[in-house]
User: Fold this.
Amino acid sequence: MNNPIIDPRVIQHTLIGAAVTETQLLAHLEQSLTYGFGAAMVQGSWVSLARDRLSGTDVTVASALDFPEVGTMTSAGKAAEAAELARQGAEQIDIGVQIGWLKSGKTQAFFDDIRGVVEASGVPIKVMLELPLLDSREREIAIELSVQAGVSYVKNASSGAVEIANPESIRFLKERVPGGVGVKASGGIKSAEQVRALLDAGADLVGTSAGITILSGPLGAEVGSY
Assistant:
């Protein structure tokens, strides 16, 4: 039975990894349907299979690029891959951003990199801003440029290796984005209690691989998550 304090539609059920098999991926998609998650987050190589299984359902196909090694792709390559993911059926795409460019003062290149993906894909884009890697001024610039580039969501981080999602970071983002731009929490999200705190802080979406335990278990139950 779903945890009554968590709406499963806010959870983006995540399965990304080098060794993910077709059997695991299909089970992941079935879980997304069974539990009513808002989206199934899968790597690009499995997008077309996810589209075939989830077409006509309420579960969105989501994917990620320039990830997990964030900010390593060329802008042209990133835009081309975003267009291909959308063509294969991705309805939302999370992207890494060029943190090194931002820190080097290359703000136009940082903006163009994001804008290129937005224009090429034609689907909602979520940017992984890696807040712990930015100083206070860089955080403000990153948010401002991302919004100007047309993103649909800003994220605190790409994974728990960068930051464990926390209310402070989510509140920081929520206070700085205009209406119409959402906030996605990501990184080490393991319990219903944690999800509730993130939603209360202003998160619109939550990315986690622990969604089943979060919905099924009591407050405070924890499992490992991406």
In short: The mean pLDDT is 94. The radius of gyration is 16 Å.
